[in-house]
C-alpha cells in the first residue's frame, strides 16, 4: 500500500538553471530524506557557484577591490603582531584588543572614508573619555547612594542627545560615526568606572591602542595603492559627462537612422541611466573627499561641493534625454520624408551639443580652463536656432492672425519648398517633440557649462596651454553620415 | 606709532546674521586677543544656536525621532544595570562590556534595521567564534613554532575573503554588517586564543552577553512606539504618489492660468523633486523591511521588492513632469487665444491622470483592489486622445500629400473654426510640447498602474468593499475653473 502511494509520488526538484529532474522513488523514508538532502545541496552549490562567479566578475572589473581586501588582511596581520610579541603584549595586555577592533571597524575602501572614521573615532573617544571621567569624579563626591543615580542619568541624557544629533543632516554628514563612538565610550567609561579604580591608566591605554590602530590604518591605506574619494568623484563626474554625451549621440542617431537598431548603439544609449542613479554615490564621495589631505592635483580645500552641483546639472540633462529616449520607442513617428529633412539639422544640433559636453569633460579631466568653450556654446546655440528655424519654415500657408490684430505674421514658405512636402500638424507632432527636447537639452547643457565654469573659478584652473584652438567641427562621423 | 597704526586698523567681525560690527581698538596685544576671542566665541555661539534651532525643527516635524533617542537612552540605562547589580556583575565580569557595546551599535531607528543588525551580529559572532576555535585547535596540534604562522595566515585569508564579500551586491544588501562582525570576532578569537586558555568559557560568556544585548534592543525597539521600515516604505510610496499628482496638477494649472503664480501653487509643484530623490531611501527601507516579522497589515513575506518597482515607475513619471515644469518657465509661450482653447482639454486630461494617480494612492493606502481603476484609466486615455484630436484639428489647410501618394490626408477644419484662429507652426510649438508631455505622462502612469496591480496580485489585496463606484468625475475644482 505504502509502496503503491510512493510510486505515484514524484520528487521533482527544480534546479534553478532551468532543468527539472524527476527523482526516482527510493525505498523507505531514509531514501526520501537522502533525495531531499541531495536536492538542497544542489541548490546550495548552485547558489554558491553563482555568488563566486559574481565575485570573480567584480574582481576582474575593478582589481582595486581585490587590492583593498589584501590591504585589510595586511593591516590585521600587522596589528596581530601586538599579541604575538611578548614585550608589546605585556605593555598593553587585553587592551590590544582595541587596536584590532579599530582596524576592523575603521579600515574603509577610500582614503577619505578611512580618515573620516579615524578622526571621528579618536576625537570622540577622547571627548567621551574626558567627559566620562569628569562625571565620574563628580559622582564620587556625592556619596555611594547618589553615585549610580548620577551615572545612570548622565548616560541616559548624553546617549539620547548624541543619538538625536545623528538626525541633524549637517552633523550626520560629518560626525555620524563620531556620535556613535561617543555614546559607546561614554557609556563604557561611566559604567566601568563604577568598578575600575585605575580609570586614568585604562583611558591612557585605550587611547594609545586606538591611536596605534588608526595610524596603522592610515599608513596602510595611503601607502599601498590608495583609493582617493576625491579622485573617484572627479572621475565619476567626468565619466558621467562622457556617458551623457554618448547617450545623446546614441538617441539622436537611433531616431534618425533608417536601419534596425544595433546592440552596440543600444548599450551606448543607456548611459544616461547611470547619471540618473549616481546621486547617492556622488554625495557620499564628496562627504569623504573633504577629509582627504592634499593629493595629486587636489588641494585639501578643493571645492568638492561644486562637483555635486555639476552632478545635479548633469542629472537635469539626463531627465530630458530620458524623455527623448522614450520618443524613439514611441509608436507615432514622423513620415520618412520629414524626418529626412530634419535629420541633418537635428544631427548637427546634437553633435554640437555633444561637442560642448565633450569639451567640458576634457576641462574636468585636464583641470584646465578651455580656451574655446564659448565658441562651442555659441555654435551649439546657433545650431539649435537653425533647427527651430527649420521647423518654423515648414510650409504653412494662409494663416490668419488673431482678431486683436496682434501680429499678422504669415509664415513664409522658405527653403524647403521644392524638396519637401508640407504635412498636417499630426505628422509634424513627433518631430516637434524631438526638436523641443533638443532645445531644452541645449538650455540645460548651458547649466552644466555654468557649473563647470564656477568650478574652474573656485579651484583656480589654469588656462589650457595650446594656443591654436581645435577646429570647431561637429563630430565628423555624424554629419558626413547624413 | 603703534597706537597710530592700531587706530587705522579696524577689527571688523562679520557675524553671519548679516550685521557687521566695527570693533574699537583696545590698548595692547591683550586687547586684540580678547577682541579676537570674543569674535570667535560669537561665531561659535551663533553656529551652535543654528544647530539647536535645526534640531528643534527636526524634533517638532517628527516626534518619533525624539522618542527613538529616549529609547536608546532607556536601553543603555537598562543594560548598565548589569554593572550596578553585584550578582550579575560577578557572573559576567568585564564581558558585560559586550552587552553595552551591542546595544550602542545595534540599536537603529527602524525595527527592520535593528533586526538586521541583531541577526547579523549573533550569527556572525557564532560562526566566526566556532571557526576561530576550530583553527585554534588545529594550530595547537602543529606545535608552538607553526602556531602563530597558521593563525596569522588564517586571519589574513578570512579577513580578505570576508572583506571582498562586502563588495558583492547581494551580500552587501543583507550581510554587510555580518561580514564586518565576522572579521572582528574571528581576528579577536584567533588572536586572543594565543594567550587565553579558557577560550570556550570566554566564547560562551561573550555570546550570552551579546544575546542579552540584542534581545534587549529588540524588546525595546518593538515595545515602545516601534517604527517599522515596511510601514515607512509603504507610507513613502503612498506619499510620493500624492506628491506626483499634486505636482502634475500644479504644473498644468500654473501653465494655463492667467494671473501671476502663487506661493502655495509653487510649493505644490515642487513635489516631484521628492520623488526624484527618494531612490536611496526606498532601497534601504526595502532592505530592512524584509527582516521584519509580521506587523499590522504586512506579512513576513510581503513583496517589498515590488514597492521598489512602483517607486521606479513613479520616478519615470517624475522625469516627464520635470520636463513639463521647465515648459512653464520657458520664454516662448503660445498666444493666449490658443492657450485658452487648449486649456480646457489639457486640464481635463491632467485631472483624469491625477484621478488615476489618486486612485492608485488610495489602493496602496487601503491595501484593497480598486473597483474602478480600469474605468479611470480608460477615462484618462480618452481625455488624452481628445487632447491629441484637438491638436490634430487645428486648422491647417491646403496640405499636399507626399508625392508617393501615401495618404492624401487633408486636415479638416473642425469644431474650433468659429471661435479660434489658426496660427503658424511656431505659435503651436509650445503647446505641442505640453501636449506631447501629457501623452507621455499618461503612458507612464499606465506603467505605475501595472506595477500597483502586480503588487495587489503578489500581496493578495482584497477587493474594495463599497459596491457603488464613486462618480468618475475629474477633480471638480479644475474643470469648473476653466
From TrEMBL, chains A, B:
Family: Belongs to the aromatic acid exporter (TC 2.A.85) family.
Keyword Endoplasmic reticulum applies: no
Organism from which the protein derives: Gossypium australe
Transmembrane segments: 66-84, 96-115, 122-139, 145-165, 177-197, 209-231
Membrane topology qualifier: Multi-pass membrane protein
Subcellular location: Membrane
Keyword Ion transport belongs to the record: yes
Protein name from the UniProt record: Aluminum-activated malate transporter 10-like
Keywords for this protein: Ion channel, Ion transport, Membrane, Transmembrane, Transmembrane helix, Transport
Domain of life, source organism: Eukaryota
One GO cellular component, as annotated: membrane
Primary site of residence: membrane
Amino acid at each position: 500500500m505504502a509502496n503503491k502511494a510512493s510510486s505515484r509520488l514524484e520528487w521533482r526538484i527544480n534546479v534553478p538553471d532551468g532543468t527539472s529532474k524527476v527523482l526516482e522513488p527510493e525505498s523507505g523514508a531514509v531514501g526520501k530524506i537522502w533525495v531531499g538532502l541531495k536536492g538542497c545541496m544542489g541548490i546550495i552549490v548552485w547558489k554558491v557557484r553563482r555568488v563566486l562567479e559574481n565575485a570573480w566578475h567584480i574582481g576582474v572589473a575593478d582589481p582595486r577591490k581585490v587590492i583593498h581586501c589584501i590591504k585589510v588582511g595586511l593591516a590585521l596581520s600587522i596589528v596581530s603582531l601586538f599579541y604575538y610579541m611578548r614585550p608589546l603584549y605585556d605593555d598593553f595586555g587585553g587592551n590590544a584588543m582595541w587596536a584590532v577592533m579599530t582596524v576592523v571597524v575603521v579600515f574603509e575602501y577610500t582614503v577619505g572614508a578611512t580618515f573620516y572614521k579615524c578622526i571621528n573615532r579618536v576625537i570622540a573617544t577622547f571627548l567621551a573619555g574626558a567627559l566620562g571621567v569628569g562625571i565620574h569624579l563628580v559622582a564620587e563626591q556625592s556619596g555611594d547612594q547618589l553615585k549610580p543615580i548620577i551615572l545612570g542619568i548622565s548616560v541616559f541624557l548624553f546617549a539620547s542627545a548624541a543619538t538625536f544629533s545623528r538626525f541633524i543632516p549637517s552633523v550626520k554628514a560629518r560626525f555620524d560615526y563620531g556620535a556613535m563612538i561617543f555614546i559607546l565610550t561614554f557609556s563604557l567609561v561611566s559604567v566601568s568606572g563604577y568598578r575600575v579604580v585605575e580609570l586614568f591608566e585604562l583611558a591612557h591605554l585605550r587611547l594609545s591602542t586606538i591611536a596605534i590602530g588608526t595610524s596603522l590604518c592610515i599608513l596602510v591605506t595611503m601607502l599601498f595603492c590608495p583609493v582617493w574619494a576625491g579622485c573617484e568623484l572627479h572621475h565619476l563626474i567626468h565619466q558621467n559627462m562622457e556617458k551623457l554625451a554618448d547617450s545623446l549621440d546614441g538617441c539622436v542617431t537611433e531616431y534618425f537612422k533608417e536601419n534596425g537598431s544595433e546592440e552596440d548603439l543600444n548599450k551606448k544609449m543607456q548611459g544616461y541611466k547611470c547619471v540618473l542613479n549616481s546621486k547617492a554615490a556622488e554625495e557620499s564621495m564628496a562627504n569623504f573627499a573633504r577629509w582627504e589631505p592634499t593629493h595629486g592635483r587636489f588641494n585639501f580645500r578643493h571645492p568638492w561641493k561644486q562637483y555635486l552641483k555639476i552632478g545635479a546639472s548633469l542629472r537635469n540633462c539626463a531627465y530630458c534625454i530620458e524623455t527623448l529616449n522614450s520618443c524613439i520607442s514611441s509608436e507615432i513617428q514622423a513620415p520618412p520624408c520629414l524626418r529626412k529633412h530634419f535629420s541633418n539639422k537635428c544631427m548637427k544640433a546634437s553633435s554640437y551639443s555633444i561637442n560642448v559636453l565633450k569639451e567640458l569633460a576634457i576641462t574636468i579631466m585636464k583641470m584646465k580652463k578651455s580656451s574655446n568653450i564659448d565658441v562651442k556654446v555659441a555654435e551649439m546655440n546657433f545650431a539649435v536656432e537653425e533647427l527651430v528655424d527649420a521647423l518654423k519654415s515648414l510650409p504653412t500657408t494662409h494663416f490668419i492672425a488673431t482678431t486683436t490684430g496682434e501680429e499678422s505674421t504669415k509664415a513664409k514658405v522658405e527653403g524647403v519648398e521644392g524638396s519637401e512636402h508640407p504635412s498636417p500638424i499630426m505628422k509634424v507632432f513627433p518631430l516637434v517633440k524631438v526638436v523641443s527636447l533638443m532645445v531644452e537639452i541645449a538650455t540645460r547643457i548651458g547649466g552644466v557649462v555654468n557649473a563647470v565654469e564656477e568650478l574652474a573659478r573656485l579651484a583656480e584652473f589654469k588656462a589650457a596651454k595650446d594656443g591654436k584652438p581645435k577646429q570647431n567641427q561637429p563630430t565628423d562621423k555624424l554629419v558626413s553620415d547624413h
